[in-house]
Amino acid sequence: MGYYKVPRSVLFLCLFISFCLPYQFLAYEVEADQPVQLLIDASEGSGRRIPDTLFGIFFEEINHAGTGGLWAELVSNRGFEAGGAIIPSNIDPWSIIGDESSLIVSTDRSSCFERNKVALRMEVLCDSEGAHICPSGGVGLYNPGFWGMGHGFRKDLVDMLTRIKPRFLRFPGMYHVTWPLQIGLDWWLAEDLDALPIWEALDGLEFARGNYLKFYDAIRRTYPDIKMITNCDGSSRPLDHPADMYDFHAFVSEYAVTGKDAGTGSLLAALAEAGFLIGLEKNSDIVQMASYAPLFVNTNDRRWNPDAIVFNSSQHYGTPSYWVQHFFAESSGATLLNAALKTNSSSLVASAITWKNSEGQSYIRIKIVNFGSTSVNLKISVSGLDPNSVELSGSTKTILTSANVMDENSFKEPEKIAPIQTLLESADKEMAVQVLPHSFTSFDLLKKSVSLRIKEDDSSSISSI
Ligand SMILES: *[C@@H]1O[C@H](CO)[C@@H](O)[C@H](O)[C@H]1NC(C)=O
Ligand SMILES: *[C@@H]1O[C@H](CO)[C@@H](O)[C@H](O)[C@H]1NC(C)=O
């Protein structure tokens, strides 16, 4: 982040001015007894497809997100102080490689590090020649690692990322870590998450302005399969530089509510972001990609607030902003339905999509943000569906809220503000629901599958599943 030309605060401001104005939340309060209507058209072929890569993640080396975070704590008990700073020290889970008669391992307090006095001493008694030859596998110490060694990521943190199903992983790749290393790690991470890796060369290109061709050639040579996309418009006149594609659609590369209202991750900030993301869904003919930033903060090196995922060496939690992204995990590649909210209140924003799960079950997901401080009686009407086409059993309601809008999660209460899913007993084409104050709610209606005509022997039967 240190190399941005535009200070991040300005960037955030621009994004919010351009995208949030249509959805400003004024302090208009809805009368609790005056129902608000949400009309949704779910008829076949009426919606618009949302880009497959609308919501992704932006990984950068800030707040010790990578080094000291996602991929640093691989070595368990790396300071040999699991049992405290006393000696002889507890060196578990380190174990000796080779023959114990070839190696003596002990601990003393000779370390040059003030905060980590315990040092490990290894005396190798064998040699490559002479009377005491070392075992063929060599001698040394082995550490099985904290989280399994695979690609070497902390499993708990990668799981947090997997759960929001990011469709792309953006990484600038030019910051504190040396290049090839960072690119390798980012690539693995994208592979582990099944996300499309997007290496944002443009930051780098501007950073290396004047060297564009050298830069282009170097990437082409090293990573011939990477598509290089320029954000210059090549439609009216030819580009004056080589590139595989041009695209001037909007990429909201970093969004987040920051400042006093956001604290270190408040519900208030998360609700505003939910409204903003609903706006992006609705404008996804123009906005093609969006990613929250920063993704991680290691509490031992907090350089930027707020962040999506907070961790230290042993614990982690998602901020409300992280949980908001769960509600959009199915949006990329889904179909946006026409949804009209009949209200004079500007505290409410809603959208509706249809999406299919991996088993091919089809859902209508209705999301609504209530930014106001009173609850709202909402009448939802879904048109364009056959009668009895909503399954009661699989339909759910998911709510993100808390008693106070400034509430935050913490290591002590990691899921104080987290989505709570319950069965939606009133699931139907016409529903009367109550939307809690200061909340983000999604209603997932499971659609009955279309009728199938199945031929069995000589008789045909119609099975309506
Ligand atoms: C992580 O933070 C919590 C809360 O401050 C603390 O209790 C715990 O000891 C920390 N863990 C490590 C390994 O620093
Ligand atoms: C919105 O306000 C106008 C004017 O006050 C009123 O006539 C109308 O009924 C209101 N609409 C709704 C949906 O509340």
From TrEMBL:
It comes from the Eukaryota. Keywords: Glycoprotein, Signal. Gene3D superfamilies: Glycosidases, Golgi alpha-mannosidase II. Residues 1-27 form the signal peptide. One of its GO terms (molecular function) is alpha-L-arabinofuranosidase activity. PANTHER family: ALPHA-L-ARABINOFURANOSIDASE 1. This is Alpha-L-arabinofuranosidase C-terminal domain-containing protein.
